[in-house]
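Review session, final week

We close the course with one last complete record, chosen because it touches almost every idea we covered. It is 4-hydroxy-tetrahydrodipicolinate synthase, a protein from Chitinophaga niastensis with 291 residues. Go through it on your own first, then we will talk.
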Amino acid sequence: MEQLKGTGVALVTPFKADESIDWNALEKLINYVIDGGVNYVVSLGTTGETPTLSADEKLDLIKFTFEKVSKRVPVVIGVGDYSTRDVVKRLEKCPLDEAAAILSVAPYYSKPTQEGIFQHYKTIAAASPKPVILYNVPGRTGRNMTAETTLRLAHEVENIVAMKEASGDMMQCMQIIRDKPDNFLVISGDDALALGQLACGMDGVISVAANYFAEDFSSMVQAALLNDFPAARSMNNKMLEGFELMFSENNPAGIKAFLHHAGIIENVFRLPILPVTDELYSKIGAYLKKY
């Protein structure tokens, strides 16, 4: 799992004006983040607006990402749902031969008990042909996966190898880092908290911001992993206002505004996501001129 240390980027899904997938823009984005130094890419994460994609589009995105990445960096595929059975069925159909791992979000909406979350992941791990990265993001799922549940999965289920932790609870993060198995990775899912979490012992970040800040964000993470915190702080301070603007209204609306300013993608979404307000879009543009 050494290949999943450092910076992973949760790719956005670019759309054309007619809301079809913009394959040319996605290829441009993939090359941009790889050239910027990210360690791996994540396809079909929440940032990719996966709830609005059809099953066929998801399969096409997986195949396209493998083709355009062309083994330059590892690829992680998002495979998550609130139905355990549906995740297992999708694992049977997904072309995962070239994947380094799958990233599976905790079941959302249904708010299962901690035992329900444990059994959900245990079942997925048994069905998955690839290592499983847990993903705790209670702000989206409605249910926190506790440190106890995470550690139980890490110690008891062999095919579960890492955790993307996006609860924002630093005490919970530190408990997981302290008590995890030696070969289990803990990965930040909060760009704005990543520097502090790396200082606590996390192994990297699966980042939204690295879609735009590919080079500086990757350099910040690498500096922190090498315990060069003065350099890491300097780069983080440079991006800090950008993080605030990026997430002030919605993700991925914020990061798509950044990428549109950069000329990489169109500023197009599928409902219910809307572009950021004109006021925020202008603030982002002003910040990027300074940046």
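Two points worth writing down before the exam:
Residues 229-246 form the longest helix (18 residues).
The CA atoms of residues 10 and 42 lie 5 Å apart.
Good luck, everyone.
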